Amino acid sequence: MHFRPDRGAAIERLCEFIPRAGRSYASSRNFDFGVENRGNVSALSPYLRHRLFTERDLLAATRKLHPRAADSKFVDEVLWRAYFKGWMEQHPSVWGAYREGVATYVSELGDNAELARDYEAAINGRTGIECFDAWVGELLESGYLHNHARMWFASIWIFTLKLPWELGADFFYRNLLDGDPASNTLSWRWVGGLHTPGKTYLARASNIRDFTNNRFDPAGQLAETAVTLKEAAIHPLQQLRNADSSPVDRPYGLLITEEDCYAEGLGLGAAPQSILAAVATQARSPLPVGMPVRQFAIGAVADALTRAEKHFRVTGEQATNDDWGRLLAEWAEAGGFETIVTAFVPVGPVAERIAKAKAFLGERGIDLLQVRRDYDSVVWPHATKGYFKLKARIPALLSQLRISSDDDFIGRAAS
Fold first, then answer.
1. pTM of the model
2. What gap in Å lies between CA 9 and CA 13, rounded to an integer?
3. Is-contact 150 187, C-beta < 8 A?
4. Domains of the chain with bracketed CATH
5. Helix 181-192 crosses helix 73-89 at what angle (to 10 degrees)?
6. pLDDT tens by residue, 159-206
7. Which listed site, 157, 183, 276, 277, has its alpha carbon 20 to 30 Å from 125?
């Protein structure tokens, strides 16, 4: 399937899917019918990942058509993403350990011929396991995989092919349009038994056969046991980083990144002096990032810039410089403002660039503020332990966010 990287396409897909977000979704969501038949799932994740619309918008649209959606499976799945984001924000050392693991194994590929051979066979779809090899092809071509296929894939990678999970997570992160630092990293850790210690996910041939509608049957090819992965590191709970308030009494420049492509919905009030859009997609990995992923991120950010220019009636520009500190300093100095505002950037490579730039800017008397959306501020604090602690609070969270069946997001988006 094709994903057009703009808000218009995101709203179109949302409107097409939402009528099926109730019982139909709950009963069929686990089936992977193939790349040409994705009507049973939302396929909204690339748009949510880049926030071409927000999770709050999606929940409002769902609640409008399905008033009892607070306890629905679809709402449950939407909140899983917030759980992963919030959990990673409060355990940032997991991201650091993952990045170190990727760097270590990428270096080892040059010295370990056996690892390099097995890795190349896996990422080129030459393992001889038909379903796995087909999923590789689908991922590389479309930038998308059904969620159940992702779980099977990760399990086969870890327990059957016995490859390092970090390299598998990196392969996904480089090639998924919805590749997300938190959701991707923690999902791979969950399959391997690291996120929920001792609990693994083992792909079984019968499950794959049943839920691919008999398209695949890897009987006799998969590992029959899953030995829990171990790690020496302890990842302590840390306090959520503080967010900043919108500047109300001083000139500012607006920075748009691929982490949030809906600047006009950020509640900034006064218009910025200038708008700058920057992309950091290649920073996902030391290895090349897939062309579909790069094109989607560039397109999403370009679309966000166009909409922000129209909304704020301010001319903007798209940046190409990877040195964000110098880039932002020169932009601010040329525009005559000493404050830069961006949507809050969660843990990941964009946050790494923001942190480095903030230090550089601070030395020059330029403030870099990150404004966090209410949805994140309300939900993330409840992502401290397992997901089901947060799940139990879903009705209360929706109420706190004032998401009700009276909220006509689709109507507002179409106007």
1. 0.96
2. 6
3. yes
4. 7-89+377-414 (no CATH), 98-211 (1.10.579.10), 253-371 (3.40.50.620)
5. 100
6. 999 999 999 999 999 999 999 999 999 999 999 999 998 899 999 999
7. 183
26/205: higher pLDDT: 205
Nearest to 213 by CA among 2, 30, 24: 30
Confidence category of residue 357, pLDDT binned at 50, 70, 90: very high
Q: Which two tokens stand for residue 241?
A: 């980083």
Question: Is the separation of the CB atoms in 145 and 153 below 8 Å?
Answer: yes
- Percentage above 70 pLDDT, the chain: 99
Mean pLDDT of 331-360: 96
Nearby residues of 14 by Cβ (< 8 Å), 6 or more positions away: 42, 44, 47, 53, 58, 61, 410
Q: Counting beta carbons within 10 angstroms of the beta carbon of residue 206, is it exposed (0 to 12), middle (13 to 18) or buried (19 or more)?
A: exposed
Is the pLDDT at 70 greater than 60, yes or no?
Answer: no
What is the rounded CA–CA span in Å between residue 170 and residue 293? 13
Q: Which two tokens stand for residue 104?
A: 């270590």
CA-wise closest residue to 279 among 306, 300, 249: 300
pLDDT of residue 71: 63
As a dihedral over the C-alpha atoms of residue 167, residue 256, residue 144, residue 91, rounded to 10 degrees, the angle is: 40
Mean of all residue pLDDT scores within the chain? 94
Question: In the numeric block, which tokens belong to residue 189?
Answer: 């850790």
Short-list 177, 158, 168, 181, CA closest to 123 = 168
